[in-house]
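Running this now, will post back.
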Amino acid sequence: WWRNAHVSDKLLQTRLREVYSEDETTKAECLHQRAIQSYFSALD
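Update: finished.
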C-alpha cells in the first residue's frame, strides 16, 4: 500500500506545483509536514 501512498503523494506535489508558485508549494509542504507531525504527536 505504501507504493500507492507514494504515488498519490507525488501526484499531490505535482498538483501543488501547478496551483502554486514554487515558493508557495514549499510553504504548503512545510505546513503539510507540520500538520502530520502534530497529528501523530497528538496520538501519543
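Residues 2-43 form one domain. More later if anyone needs it.
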